[in-house]
């Protein structure tokens, strides 16, 4: 295996330098069971710096479980996962530090309901990264501006639309300066008219060089934004292809069946 430098903090958003060869996430021989259910079946996947990997697959195929193992929200039974060359620790302070390098945005926005938008964004940097309130707030306002919500900073989450809340959730993740962002169906809970405002933010991040994994059912977005499409079914990676290959010429019956149902 290659040698990696000690983890440095991620570059400020918008200044990422694409360093095409460096593996940021390495998933090697990962297996996981829920009782008898083999939910992750020999998963091998390397995600390189600046890459946009879109995971597609039917409901129940293990997409969320895979995402959740990447920041150790779920344990694995076999195999290993490395973030920028460092194995995911079991628990404790190292886990908190490594987890900060892997931002995650869920279908449900998961904002702190009793904190203002600004406080939602400053909390992690102040608590986990021990930033001063001033620094955390300056950074939060820049991030909220980037996702188009700066004028809502003093409001509470319930006062915002779903699309706005999801953009705050993205800003909150970015505030930790993650090396990788995981998006698990980030637009599935949104009214249709709000889907694009969230996909646009994700697309801009991708263009700026953010390394990301996106689970989505938005096929137009997958086609446009993905460097690579991973198709999962029954806990396995069944296909791995460019979006052109995958959408125009799926190789497996399972992928053809999936595309036939949704396109
Ligand atoms: P996807 O995100 O592709 O829809 P999931 O990763 O959520 O799939 O789920 C994969 C399979 O694992 C499903 O059959 C689901 O019911 C099962 N599963 C998910 N979480 C748990 C859990 N905590 N305990 C038992 N089974 C689970
Ligand atoms: Mg899921």
Automatic annotation (TrEMBL):
Organism domain of life: Bacteria
Any one Pfam family match given in the protein's UniProt record, by short name: ABC_tran
Region feature Disordered, mapped onto this chain: 1-15
Localization in the cell: Cell membrane
Residue spans crossing the bilayer: none
Example GO molecular function: ATP binding
Catalytic class of the enzyme: translocase
Domain ABC transporter: 25-259
Entry EC no(s): 7.4.2.1
Subcellular location, principal: membrane
SMART domains, sorted: AAA
The reaction(s) this protein catalyses: a polar amino acid(out) + ATP + H2O = a polar amino acid(in) + ADP + phosphate + H(+)
Annotated Gene3D superfamilies: P-loop containing nucleotide triphosphate hydrolases (3.40.50.300)
Coiled coil: none
GO cellular component, one term: plasma membrane
Protein's membrane topology: Peripheral membrane protein
Keywords assigned by UniProt, alphabetized: Amino-acid transport, ATP-binding, Cell membrane, Membrane, Nucleotide-binding, Transport
InterPro entries: AAA+_ATPase, ABC_ATPase_HisP-typ, ABC_transporter-like_ATP-bd, ABC_transporter-like_CS, MetN_ABC_transporter-like, P-loop_NTPase
Transport recorded as keyword: yes
Record-stated family: Belongs to the ABC transporter superfamily.
Entry protein name: ABC-type polar-amino-acid transporter
């Amino acid at each position: 295996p290659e040698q990696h430098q000690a983890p440095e903090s991620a570059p400020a958003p918008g200044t990422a330098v694409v360093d095409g060869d460096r593996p940021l996430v390495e998933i090697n021989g990962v297996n996981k069971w829920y009782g008898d259910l083999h939910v992750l079946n020999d998963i091998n996947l390397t995600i390189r710096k600046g890459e946009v990997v879109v995971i597609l697959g039917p409901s129940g195929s293990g997409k969320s479980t895979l995402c959740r193992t990447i920041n150790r929200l779920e344990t694995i039974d076999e195999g290993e996962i490395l973030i920028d060359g460092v194995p995911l620790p079991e628990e404790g302070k190292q886990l908190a530090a490594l987890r900060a390098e892997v931002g995650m945005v869920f279908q449900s926005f998961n904002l702190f309901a009793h904190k203002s938008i600004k406080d939602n964004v400053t909390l992690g940097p102040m608590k986990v990264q021990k930033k001063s309130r001033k620094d955390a707030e300056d950074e939060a306002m820049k991030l909220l501006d980037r996702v188009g919500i700066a004028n809502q900073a003093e409001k509470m989450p319930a006062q915002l639309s779903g699309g706005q809340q999801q953009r705050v959730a993205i800003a909150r993740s970015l505030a930790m300066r993650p090396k990788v962002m995981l998006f698990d169906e980030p637009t599935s809970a949104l009214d249709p008219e709000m889907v694009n405002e969230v996909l646009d933010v994700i697309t801009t991040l991708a263009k700026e060089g953010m390394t990301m994994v996106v689970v989505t059912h938005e096929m137009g977005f997958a086609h446009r934004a993905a460097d690579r499409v991973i198709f999962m079914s029954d806990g396995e990676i069944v296909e791995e292809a460019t979006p052109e290959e995958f959408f125009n010429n799926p190789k497996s019956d399972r992928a053809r069946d999936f595309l036939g149902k949704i396109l």
